[in-house]
């Protein structure tokens, strides 16, 4: 038997944009986007004022400006975001050591047993949000439930500056009523495919057999079959093992000269070496990512027999991959990533756990 866990997903509200508004009072209450305003720029984060106009992260700056002509672009300051993220993480650690950061602005916390001896995950989430506000001046939202999957969905429910608890006895109904697009991990392509199969809600998904779902969605089919039944046994892992490390650059103008490309790859390799040194890792598989001017994407990889982390060796293999075949068009983005890292061997295989018996306890 497997005891039910109490999981909190904390998600900062419009984090980068909120930090900029916090530090610069002139930006408060205005539509702002963190990111580049050039033709090639991309929005990293948008304030809630900008979101009302349909501006969102990963959107091209040109479209964002078209949607919201009064949009103010602000350059990202990652050192500042990291500094505040660290402060927030220290608050999490006051409650539990089982903290799994997903990025600078979100994390899972397992508070089944916690340092405050508080049996209510709902009250802990409330307290953490209040403390974040007090220590940083920023708002956070939270989702609370029996597993990471449901907690993540729930944290989006009452945004901004809200929280939602899905108690054990509410899980089934909550998931059945949920639109399929709201399921974490179901993107536009998968959602469209599900619509074509008559799956619009969790209830529709639940009516499909595991065999039907694996036939149509491969390995993910089993995942969908389980999560809609409230089964998701992934634990909160305080030390998430990095699977790959990379960097990429989008250019202001398309480039077709290989000499220019090599110059850019050198800068990228330098950045990767810096990150590898900081993370104390090395890798064996080098992947070159090329995005052409027509937005088509190509990757070329090579695996060697030893671990590398130096700029020179990374660049040498990236060059080899660049010359592997002729470019089919001019290039708008180049990236290099290193995988097959020397952390992989440390990863423990997930234990096959017995599916949880749904025990009811105070949330």
From TrEMBL:
Gene3D superfamilies: 3.30.70.270, 3.40.1170.60, 5' to 3' exonuclease, C-terminal subdomain, DNA polymerase, Y-family, little finger domain. The keyword Hydrolase does not apply. It is an enzyme of class 2 (transferase). Its EC number is 2.7.7.7. It comes from the Bacteria. Residues 7-187 form the UmuC domain. Pfam families: IMS, IMS_C, IMS_HHH. GO terms for molecular function: DNA-directed DNA polymerase activity. The record marks 16 as: Substrate discrimination. InterPro entries: DNA/RNA_pol_sf (IPR043502), DNA_pol_Y-fam_lit_finger_sf (IPR036775), DNA_pol_Y-fam_little_finger (IPR017961), DNA_polymerase-Y (IPR050116), DNApol_IV (IPR022880), PolY_HhH_motif (IPR024728), Rev_trsase/Diguanyl_cyclase (IPR043128), UmuC (IPR001126). Binds 2 magnesium ions per subunit. SUPFAM superfamilies: DNA/RNA polymerases (SSF56672), Lesion bypass DNA polymerase (Y-family), little finger domain (SSF100879). Its main location: cytoplasm. The active site is at 106. Keywords: Cytoplasm, DNA damage, DNA repair, DNA replication, DNA-binding, DNA-directed DNA polymerase, Magnesium, Metal-binding, Mutator protein, Nucleotidyltransferase, Transferase. It is found in: Cytoplasm. CDD domains: PolY_Pol_IV_kappa. Signal peptide: none annotated. Its cofactor is Mg(2+). The keyword Transcription regulation does not apply. Poorly processive, error-prone DNA polymerase involved in untargeted mutagenesis. Copies undamaged DNA at stalled replication forks, which arise in vivo from mismatched or misaligned primer ends. These misaligned primers can be extended by PolIV. Exhibits no 3'-5' exonuclease (proofreading) activity. May be involved in translesional synthesis, in conjunction with the beta clamp from PolIII. Belongs to the DNA polymerase type-Y family. Monomer. This is DNA polymerase IV. It comes from Salegentibacter chungangensis.
């Amino acid at each position: 038997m497997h005891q039910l866990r109490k999981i909190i997903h904390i998600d900062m509200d419009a984090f980068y944009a909120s930090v900029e508004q916090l530090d610069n009072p002139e930006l408060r209450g205005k539509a702002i986007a963190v990111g580049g305003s050039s033709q090639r720029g991309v929005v990293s984060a948008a304030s809630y004022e900008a979101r009302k106009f349909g501006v969102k992260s990963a959107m091209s700056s040109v479209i964002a400006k078209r949607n919201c002509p009064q949009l103010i672009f602000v350059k990202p300051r990652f050192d500042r975001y990291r500094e505040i993220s660290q402060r927030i993480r220290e608050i999490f650690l006051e409650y539990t050591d089982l903290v799994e950061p997903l990025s600078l602005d979100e994390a899972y916390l397992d508070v089944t047993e916690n340092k405050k001896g508080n049996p209510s995950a709902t009250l802990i989430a409330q307290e953490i949000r209040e403390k974040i506000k007090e220590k940083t001046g920023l708002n956070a939202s939270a989702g609370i439930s029996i597993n990471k999957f449901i907690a993540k969905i729930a944290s989006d429910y009452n945004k901004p500056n809200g929280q939602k608890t899905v108690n054990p006895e509410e899980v089934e109904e909550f998931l059945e009523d949920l639109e399929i697009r709201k399921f974490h991990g179901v993107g536009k392509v998968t959602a469209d495919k599900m619509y074509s199969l008559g799956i619009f809600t969790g209830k529709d998904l639940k009516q499909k057999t595991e065999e039907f779902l694996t036939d149509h969605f491969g390995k993910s089919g089993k995942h969908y079959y389980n999560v809609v039944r409230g089964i998701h046994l992934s634990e909160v892992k305080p030390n998430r093992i990095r699977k790959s490390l990379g960097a990429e650059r989008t250019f202001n103008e398309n480039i077709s000269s290989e000499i220019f490309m090599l110059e850019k790859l050198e800068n990228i390799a330098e950045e990767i070496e810096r990150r590898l040194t900081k993370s104390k890792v090395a890798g064996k598989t080098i992947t070159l990512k090329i995005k052409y001017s027509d937005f088509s994407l190509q990757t070329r990889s090579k695996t060697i027999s030893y671990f590398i982390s130096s700029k020179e060796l990374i660049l040498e293999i990236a060059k080899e991959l660049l010359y592997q075949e002729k470019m089919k068009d001019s290039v708008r983005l180049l990236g290099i990533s290193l995988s097959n890292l020397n952390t992989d061997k440390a990863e423990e295989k997930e234990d096959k756990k017995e599916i949880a018996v749904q025990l009811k306890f105070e949330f």
